């Protein structure tokens, strides 16, 4: 060691002081000795750092000062100061094992067994093993022993002081190198292998090299206690996996060097060939596959009966509880707290350690039961299933887990009960046994020990939910409202009773805030614009619908109206207040146009079977005063008779399976006599018509004047904001995208595809209307109903304070009108830029005739 108490004296000064004046050959020997010692010292320092880092992780020491493991790494400069050293130690560990294997192949035994005890050092460094491996390829074991004894004696006999003189009684790397430098070592015909027959299988070097380094340790008890004490409760593998993603398997078979470039702490316990630190104590044994003899050096008191654990519950009936109350879920965090562990039967092995070493060879050629292998492979191809997995685990336990190789043991643990499997065989076997003992309470076991299991096979934990957040939010209160009060607040006193009786209602002047003359003129312009751009499909009547008008400014505006929403939420049978407007076309009839139809907005058979579609109310705003000869018709109260009518349809053999139910012919004279004729239900301008889906409704046969209507089609959303009321319709996310992009949905509110054509792109002249409220945003998919601001507004709009609700409506509607006017200012610019000479506004400005939609006979109408 270089040290000096003299200030300012450098290592170079000390080196020159020691070497100057010596012969050149002696200088060389001393410098080589320094370099040799430095290499071994560096290896020992790396081991100290690796062990200290591993101990820190196992015992989770960072938690007393740092919030996270990564925070500790940042604080100590792990990436710059430690990572390379730890990775280098891992690489050296692999090299040491490779060199030890070479020695075994040439001399028939590992160095601690092949060399006499007086030649064995306390530690076999990587440099020493490499030199011994080279020597084993050069001369026989007997010749090597003689030569090494001679070289050690020569080293001891050297005169003088200095770093080149060393009195260690055991072999050093420099001794081996001196022997190798001799010109002739191997006689012709030399066979370096002695000690085993040619047919002997290879020894598990991980275990045997470990013994070679630990037989001289005097601190094995302390080391074992470290691995089996409180730190075990923290789960070594959990700490080691800090740098991995959940469930990543880094320890594939034969990949002992694969993970060397990865972050430290990744398990290296490959199939039968795990990377072991040869300088670890017995207490640090990783007990890899094929380590049946690993614990033979331990006291008899540590031997534990595996077989009794494995088949402990096998004789119990399926209906019997395996564990008494209070013993149902054992504390699985204590891996070595009085629970029986498995250890292979070594009665014969104890008398013959060499035979035990040979038994380890089974790890290199899998001898697992073919039935178990087939079952494991079958489980890999199927979805995880605890019942099927436990049956396979029971079979494996009956055969004995020690008869399953490490590779198949890992797969067994994963596919049967979803255990993490990047760990030693002994730990895997123990966890499989613990899981079997608690098979009747598997979910409880998974909750208590989530780090044992794959994320996909265990209940969600706080860590899964919070991720980078620190605290759970306060659970939201369940939102409830008085539907009768809300309905009558906006529809008028006594309206609730009429709604329940008839299943349909007309609420006059509900949208009177649109009655301003300037707003009415702008609405007229919008309808004329879309009529100008509309093209009817050849051979198909328009039936009074404007099928290109999905996102006019007035449509976007009224879809966000709080009153329309509040009445719809209150009227729904399921009281679902999470709604979204389903974009739909407008009604705009011409005088003399055929408009007649009669139907139900649901599949009657499916509704009777499971209630499907029963919450999807139809509602519309009338923009013009309707008359009895040109309006909606319906059968009030039919929702009370729909089941009887469906039974009659079945008896007639007329049951239908469409998205809607055509009643034009199905609703016969006898039906009309029993349950009522469809009657006209004219709605005044700016009034609301609301109808249950079980009400037969339609339109008068002909139109005698212009009649325009707007539709909201408020559709229910599930709590997860995924699905809507009806199967076959778009998902919430898809519908929100339609509102955002102003594109027509590919399915109608009933779930059927549009029968009269669908625009393939956004209408180029459309303009987005800005937000007017948080509730309005939710109604068009800009926000979720879980948004805190939405909930606060709901408490007002659907709350018990009528005055506060009306005040809120007034504020929102005023903002709606402001947003409408701002958007309308952009409409002319946008439409003119989009269509140029074909623009509606350009044609109007030039005084040219404005043409309506094309008719199937080729005639055009002026607007």
From TrEMBL:
Acidic residues compositional bias, start-end: 232-354
- Compositional bias (Basic and acidic residues) at which positions? 219-231
The record's region (Disordered) falls at 213-354
Q: What is this protein called?
A: Uncharacterized protein
Its lineage reads: Eukaryota, Fungi, Dikarya, Ascomycota, Pezizomycotina
